[in-house]
Amino acid sequence: MKMRKLCIGACAGVFIVLLFSCASDPGFKAYRDGLFYGSKALEKEEYRTALDQFLKAAGGQPDQPISFALAGHAAYQLGDLAAARGYLAEAERLDPREQTQSYVIIKGFQSLIAFRQGRREEGMAALGEYVKFYRHSYPDSTYDEVKNMLQSGNINVPGLETLILHQMTRYEKEVFLFF
């Protein structure tokens, strides 16, 4: 019994030390605050503010792909496809194999950018990855419409954009619960 109490006490002590060390880390604070305020701005469709906040988050924890993926989303909404493509590429470099919640965001926006820029083959490849990953992570009633576009090869870009933006709004709201 004493050993159990000792182990619980030691674990609690380690947890408290880790908690305070993260809270006092200015990089972690910038990351946490940037994600929190960026997510609120994105929900309000304040894309410039969202982009600025996600970039602050990326500066605080540059090894975390989610801040770059969300910066890509905000830049896409601002119409800056070149910047969005760059942020998404950085997020993918940090998350090359579907390891985090950012992967579905990366692939969804990469497909939209590629189709908007006339790079159909790249768009189809990214959309294929998006559909594969989204199916397992967070599908909703619009999943089949996107899947049917992919399977038929008949991509209606404005319709696809509407569907993916709807799906991302729903998906990101769930992801934002952790910020």
Descriptive report:
The protein has 179 residues and is mainly α. The protein has helices spanning 2-24, 26-43, 47-60, 65-77, 81-94, 102-116, 120-137, 143-152, 157-176. The longest helix has 23 residues, at 2-24. It is globular and about 50 Å long.
Task: Give a topology summary.
Elements: H1 2-24, H2 26-43, H3 47-60, H4 65-77, H5 81-94, H6 102-116, H7 120-137, H8 143-152, H9 157-176
Helix pairs in contact: 2-3, 2-9, 3-4, 4-5, 4-6, 5-6, 6-7, 6-9, 7-8, 8-9
Short précis:
With 179 residues, the chain is mainly alpha-helical. It is built from nine helices and no strands. The two termini are 37 Å apart.
What are its keywords?
single chain; 179 residues; mainly alpha
Distance between the termini: 37 Å
Unreliable parts: 1-22
Number of helices: 9
Radius of gyration (Å):
19 Å
Oligomerization category of the chains in this entry: single chain
Structural class: mainly alpha
Order of helices and strands: HHHHHHHHH
**What is the mean predicted local confidence, pLDDT?**
86
Percent of residues in helices comes to: over 70%
Strand content: under 5%
Total beta strand runs: 0
Largest sheet: none
Overall body shape: globular
